[in-house]
Backbone:
């Protein structure tokens, strides 16, 4: 059956049904469905393996098949077997090194928590109540779980792709000193160190968060090349004499973006390179729609999300030169702008 046209209301009906699909994926993650379906099972076999209600299990599996989360045999009877797609095996099975299930569930619950407040916020003003209090303990937990999962599964590879465009890094063995600013659990700094034999550096974040990074660095046997520094970007020293500074989705959180950029500029050697990866709001509705829903909670907390081109101009205004900007879609959640600037 092929549908060649749709009603004008169809996009809004699709919005209404999206929570059912999201909850179907959440249920499968929470019930451990994907670990079992690493190998083919019929619905009855899956239900028996996990002590589930067999008829409803069959209905959930068909929903997940329609979402292309599962594959199934071509036959169309009760012996039909389902299995994970390659992407599901990679990102939603707990034994995968790229497992992202907890991170996805966190995003789902946090965005839903915000959405329940939206009408009240628009009517009465004020700031959105965050899903989790932004304190040191919760940041450390995030570094261990959802941020750590996303860095390992997505950001590490995307960061390497960006850095291969930059001559000091792409040269291979040239001695380099790196600052991973707001680096959380440190996976990006570790990936860059493993890819570049001459790189040494530092991961800067809240003290409780860099404790997580330090443990990860030690486990990777990189403590002789990577160190950690705990503090607040707004008020504390971030070190100096860096050749490269990497900063991903951090500037949203600083109270004075221009002051932070001047501080980063001062921390680089002359001619040093600053790589900033940050979402900005595009000027067209299609492109803006890929960013705005993710960042509306942050904006209603009073955080800054610049419009496309504003951050590049701010870099120029605060003394940076040779500012290069391009779009990338291989980072977590939403498309980002990659800005490469020299001191």
Residues:
């Amino acid at each position: 059956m092929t549908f060649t046209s749709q009603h004008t209301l169809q996009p809004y009906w699709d919005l209404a049904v999206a929570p059912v699909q999201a909850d179907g994926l959440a249920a499968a993650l929470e019930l451990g469905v994907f670990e079992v379906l690493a190998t083919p099972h019929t619905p009855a076999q899956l239900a028996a393996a996990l002590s589930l209600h067999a008829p409803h299990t069959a209905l959930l599996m068909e929903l997940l098949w329609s979402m292309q989360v599962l594959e199934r045999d071509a036959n169309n009877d009760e012996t039909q077997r389902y299995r994970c797609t390659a992407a599901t095996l990679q990102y939603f099975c707990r034994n995968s090194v790229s497992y992202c299930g907890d991170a996805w569930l966190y995003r789902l619950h946090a965005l839903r928590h915000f959405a329940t407040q939206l009408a009240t916020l628009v009517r009465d003003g004020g700031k959105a109540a965050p899903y989790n209090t932004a304190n040191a303990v919760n940041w450390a937990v995030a570094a261990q779980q959802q941020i750590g999962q996303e860095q390992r599964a997505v950001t590490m590879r995307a960061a390497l792709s960006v850095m291969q465009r930059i001559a000091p890094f792409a040269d291979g063995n040239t001695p380099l000193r790196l600052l991973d600013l707001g680096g959380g659990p440190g996976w990006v700094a570790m990936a860059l160190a493993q890819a570049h034999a001459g790189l040494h550096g530092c991961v800067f974040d809240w003290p409780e968060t860099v404790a997580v990074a330090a443990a990860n660095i030690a486990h990777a046997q990189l403590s002789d090349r990577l160190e950690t520094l705990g503090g607040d970007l707004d008020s504390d020293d971030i070190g100096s004499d860096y050749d490269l500074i990497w900063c991903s989705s951090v500037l949203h959180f600083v109270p004075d973006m221009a002051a932070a950029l001047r501080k980063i500029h001062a921390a680089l050697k002359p001619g040093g390179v600053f790589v900033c990866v940050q979402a900005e709001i595009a000027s067209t509705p299609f492109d803006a729609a890929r960013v705005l829903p993710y960042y509306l909670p942050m904006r209603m907390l009073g955080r800054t999300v610049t419009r496309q081109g504003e951050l590049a101009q701010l870099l120029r205004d605060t003394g940076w030169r040779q500012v290069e900007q391009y779009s990338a879609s291989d980072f977590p959640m939403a498309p980002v702008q990659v800005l490469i600037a020299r001191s």
About this structure: The CA atoms of residues 113 and 131 lie 6 Å apart. The mean pLDDT is 94. The radius of gyration is 22 Å. The chain is about 45% helix and 15% strand.
